[in-house]
Amino acid sequence: MIRGILPVVFAIAAGILVLAGYFIPLPFLTDLRTYLVDTAVILAAFALFVGIFNLLIVHWNKIHLKQKGMAYSVVLIISMVTTFLLGLVLGPQNVWVSNIFNYVQLPVEASLMALLAVTLTYASIRLLRRRLNLLSIVFIVTGLLMLLSTAPLPFLGNLFVINGVPLLSGYLRLFIAQVLAAGGARGILLGVALGTLTTGLRILFGADRPYGGK
Amino acid sequence: MSLLGLAGAALVVVSGILILGLPLVRRKSRPTFRNIPAFTRLRQAIGRVVEDGSRLHVSLGRGALTTPQSASALAGLSLLRRLADLTSASDKPPVATSGDATLSILSQDTLHSATRAAGQAAVDPTSARLTGVTPFSYAAGAMSVMHDENVSTNVLMGNFGLEAGLLTDAAERENAFTLTASDSLPAQAILYASGQEPLIGEELFAAGAYIDTGPLHTSSLVVQDVLRWLIIAAILAGAVLKLVGIL
């Protein structure tokens, strides 16, 4: 019984104290808020070790049970252990450890980013097939207009010029980006902020308990 | 306390009172919300997961708990709990992936609570995974889960970046149902183009109310609507006051 209640009491108390520390300018509350947030940051750093250990177990099980894609798991475990040991022995600033990041991790992530460009182009084409409605058409047309107005377009770029300002890369792009898109983005962000507020309050009331559940 | 601080505190207190008070006032009548087809299709997909013995995959993104992006991840965790309850009769437990270590621990705890509530044996600790700590390593790890583990339904809910496009593409290739929601604007644009059932803006935080997670989820959605109308009124009043030269 107490085992179930204690985490809830601690979580709610910590939440209320941190929140009060933001609104009530008392030195005691501000110090307590800083202390609690710092403690959370330290705990999060320890959580990283737990998470990586969990990742290791997942891939070890894959190898042990000879599951589909176990070859990738072997590569992952060897890379993970090698990088960890090198980092531990030589230190994170060492040239070998930096090279692993610069010549292995970075190019792999950059190639995934490049793949994303192709994926998104294909997704935009598929969008009209999947959801042919006014919003999808507006989305595609806006995307195309923004691409055209940002691209150099050696001959077409200065085709329509009004008062020395190109129509496409000047007026139209600014109107879309700074009026239509900025207005829409602010509306979405206001909605997200309201959702964040109510989600935080639900956690504070103990209605949602991701830390020990109910 | 500054005037802005006072206004912020008042907003939090009033919202809190409304969230707690509304379920007491409206005990019998349940508010009606507009139809969001994505949630209807999610329920159908959950039914299929239970029937055909496939797996549900919930990916919670990379919103660390110590950052302002944690709210979307917490909304995702709340949905994970409800979906784990709904799929408790399934042969395979849901699998949760994330790109943040604190989130992976919380998702493990959430799945553990759902399993305990359903009276089942202990949950497999590898059902909740940290698939990577950088955006693309996280995506690569989550993609392999979609590919290798007989996943038929994906729920991507949390803070994502551009890597969300790779996740939806992987889900599409596996012919799996995918519901997507993020609090990040670039991710929302990508998910709108590539996701099967994208949720826009605050719809992310409405999930709990739409899949009957509890009365406080319903009342918090009503409070969001009330606050939205107040903001609209304030913006319009500000515009009119500016127009007449008072502001």
Spell out the blueprint of helices and strands:
The complex is a heterodimer of chains A (214) and B (247).
Chain A: H1 2-23, H2 27-64, H3 70-90, H4 95-130, H5 134-150, E1 161-162, E2 165-166, H6 167-204
Antiparallel strand pairs in A: 1-2
Helix pairs in contact in A: 1-2, 2-3, 5-6
Chain B: H1 3-25, H2 37-52, E1 55-61, H3 70-86, E2 95-98, H4 101-117, E3 128-130, H5 135-148, E4 151-159, H6 164-173, E5 177-182, H7 185-194, E6 197-199, H8 207-210, H9 215-243
Parallel strand pairs in B: 1-2, 1-4, 2-3, 4-5, 5-6
Helix pairs in contact in B: 1-9, 3-4, 5-6, 6-7
Radius of gyration of chain A: 26 Å
Q: How many helical stretches of chain B?
A: 9
Helical proportion of chain A, percent range? over 70%
Cross-sheet strand order for the largest sheet of chain B? 3-2-1-4-5-6
> What's the architecture of the largest domain in chain B in CATH terms?
3-Layer(aba) Sandwich
CATH domain class name of the largest domain in chain B: Alpha Beta
What is the CATH third-level topology name of the largest domain in chain B?
A: Rossmann fold
> Helix and strand succession of chain B?
HHEHEHEHEHEHEHH
Strand content of chain B: 5-15%
Average pLDDT figure of chain B? 90
Helix content of chain B: 55-70%
The parts of chain A where pLDDT drops under 50 for at least 5 residues are: none
The biggest beta sheet of chain B, please?
6 strands, parallel
> What class, by secondary structure content of chain A?
mainly alpha
Shape of chain A: extended
Write down the overall geometry of chain B: globular
> How would you classify the quaternary structure?
heterodimer
The unreliable regions of chain B are none
Structural class computed from helices and strand pairing of chain B:
alpha/beta
SSE order of chain A, as H and E? HHHHHEEH
Ends of chain A: how far apart? 12 Å
